[in-house]
Amino acid sequence: MLGGRTDFSIVGDPSTRLLPWIVGVMVYLAGLMLAVALMLSGVAADWSQGLEAKITVQVAPGEDEDEVAVDKRVVATVRVLLKTPGIAAARPLPKNEIMTLLEPWLGAGISTADLPLPRVIDVTLEDDRRPDLAALAKRLAEAAPGSSIESHEYWRRNLVDLIGSIEAVAAVMIGLIALVAVTAVVFTTRSGLAVHHEVIEVLHLIGAQDDYIARQFQRQALALALKGSIGGTALTLLTLVAVGRVAADLDSTLLPPVALHAWHWAVLALLPVPAAYVAMITARRTVMRVLARMV
Fold this sequence. Notes:
By secondary structure, this protein is α+β, with helices and mostly antiparallel strands.
């Protein structure tokens, strides 16, 4: 593809000197947008799956109610939950675990004596069926007044919608970046045709077909785009590695586990292939259209 006879070279033309840089920058930006979309897609899938299979039951302490009374209501709540079809497990969270969850917002060493913290029960649902939450809420209200159910469906739906919107914006950005790169290739190809107009005329006179001339342009456009896209992809990967190292030092309790999987890295590393191919096809079509109008 890169070899073959060359009757003229557009590589040294002033109009082509910036093409590898333009393609490299466009691939770099598109790579970052694609990485963000891939990471968010993984986060949405993990969170959605985790929230869909869970509900939370809270048992709020009553006014002037001691710990023993609260514990009895928690036990009654767990009994009702475990007898409910569709519920696989119910685990009351210890106070120290609840404080660990609140520590990023309340700070370390906060006393719970003056905080009316509700008792939290982590409920795992069965995979093949779901409980009737309305009926369950009534039974819990009878067995343990003050208990409430949080199904997480509202938060899950909002989270999925938010991440979907961000992914759509990333897709639009990638499309606009690709459009800019294609425009740069078209401009460079047209400039090369204008610079080498006389050589092309001579080739026509000696019997060269448009396809023969177009192949020379597409090979050189492929080489220029491949050079730029490899540099842009390498810079994208280095940027992601640097950001990953910085994110690893942050408190994991404040941020969700956002990371690229092995196949994500493979997709990003292969960005030069579609980028160079699009440049090659764009150059070929541009040359064929221009030559078709030449007398």
